[in-house]
Amino acid sequence: MTVRRDPSLGACLAALALAGCVAFGDSAVPIGTLRIAAPRPSAERTLLIVLPGIGGDAEEMKDERLPEAIHESWPEVDIVLTSATLAYYRDATLVPRLDREIVEPAYRSGYTRVWLAGASLGGMGTLLYEREHPGKVTGIVLFAPFLGDPGLLEEIRSAGGPRKWEPGPLPADMNGDNYQRQVWKMVKGWADRPELVHRVWLAVGMHDYLIEDVRLLAQEVPEAHYLERPGGHTWSLWRSSAKEVFSRIRRTSIKSGSLNLGGVTAATDLTSCYRMEVDRRVGRPLWWS
Length: 289
Description:
This protein is of the alpha/beta class. It is 40% helix and 16% strand. The protein has helices at 7-18, 58-63, 66-73, 86-90, 94-108, 121-132, 150-159, 179-189, 194-197, 211-218, 235-256, 270-273, and strands at residues 3-4, 32-36, 46-51, 77-83, 113-119, 139-143, 174-175, 200-205, 226-229, 276-278. It has a single domain (32-258), classed as Rossmann fold. Helix 3 packs parallel to helix 11 and helix 5 (94-108) packs across helix 6 (121-132). Helix 6 (121-132) links the parallel strand 5 (113-119) and strand 6.
């Protein structure tokens, strides 16, 4: 399946970049990454890949202390912060590059579980990946995801929610005109695919300007997997939510037996735990070796 570029979207994003408002990036190069090793690596390796919000990159997420928040609740997980910037969305290369450059190499290198998370626009990127590769990653975590244009969301809301909404005829290929409708068609289909939706976690701030849109999505997510907490569309809220969400995921994994804590090795010091390994080369990232 291919995703075709939308000229109007590209023009809009280019205008933002020229205004100096966002980190636009360059889709001609591999997606930049920062790797943060698990403080307490387990025998069965788990990786969490994180997509930034609009205008963000891996450095911003590091500066916002997101890795520390995650490791406070889930010390066994390796983290990869990505610079999946606007250029990859504009050029419709996000999903294939993410799969080819990060997800596939992770599985090949021995990770038994790979999680994908995203905030704001990164949440939409996570959903786009899930639509293209349903069930390929172990689970997805969405922090206040961007879910589409107001007109489409009102259409779904007026129909009585995703299950009652009819997306209409859609081509097999996604493009800039239909990608939002394609994502919501996937969400509608979760009603018949419980094995997929039970892997989805969702969090939003009670004062987030996207909360009504997120509540529309929450109708299709298990109740125990949905969090509303005081706060807005900020990293502060997403950081605190991450602690709670990943703590729940860890407990669930332990109960189900999918997280084996045998063979844990303690990190020698905090500096080694949070050593950043940056690789922006073309080809396989150094840190998979």
